[in-house]
Amino acid sequence: LDRLNSLIHEYNSGSRDIDSFFEELVELAKELSEEEARAIKENLSEEELAIFDLLDKENLNPDEEKQVKKVAHELLDKLKTEKFVLDWKRKEETRADVKITIQDILYDNLPAPIYSEQDCEDRTQKVYFHIYDNYVDSKINVYV
User: Fold this and answer.
1) CA distance 57 to 59
2) Alpha helix segments (H runs only) across the chain
């Protein structure tokens, strides 16, 4: 979305001609198709894949990778069904509840000792910021 907005802004400001704008749009579409194919290959939805990428760590064995995928799926499911209340971003209490839920799920379910306490804390922050930036509620988000 940021890249598309940047392209549109460049085109509208006159710093990009129609041919280069079109070429960049085609390239962006190809990359999106690659991500969709990757999501299918990983057996995840696009939004689960985004969470998985934030949680992923090098050198995971297949069982650990499967567990991290499961965590991504369960985390999104819990947030969407229980935590994304109307205007959840407006109240400190609901924002904190979302962050604590993320933290609890990561600490309890990411494979230990592969994920240290610091790994869990770092990923809690990254996932929370991703969720905050991309979800209005369970039905309104950048993935719909």
Assistant:
1) 7
2) 2-13, 18-41, 46-55, 62-78, 92-109, 117-134
Query: How many C-alpha atoms does 87 have within 13 Å on its Cβ side?
Result: 3
Give the whole-angstrom CA distance, residue 63 versus residue 88.
Answer: 34
pLDDT band of 127, cuts 50, 70, 90: very high
Cis-peptide, bond into residue 111, ω within 30° of zero:
no
**Amino acid at site 137:** D
pTM as predicted: 0.74
* φ, ψ dihedrals at 28, nearest 5°: -60, -40
Cβ atoms of residues 143 and 134 within 8 Å? yes
Q: For residue 95, give the amino acid letter.
A: R
What average pLDDT does the structure give for the chain?
A: 90
Cβ neighbours of residue 105 closer than 8 Å, sequence gap 6 or more: 71, 74, 75, 78
CB–CB of 50/127 below 8 Å?
A: no
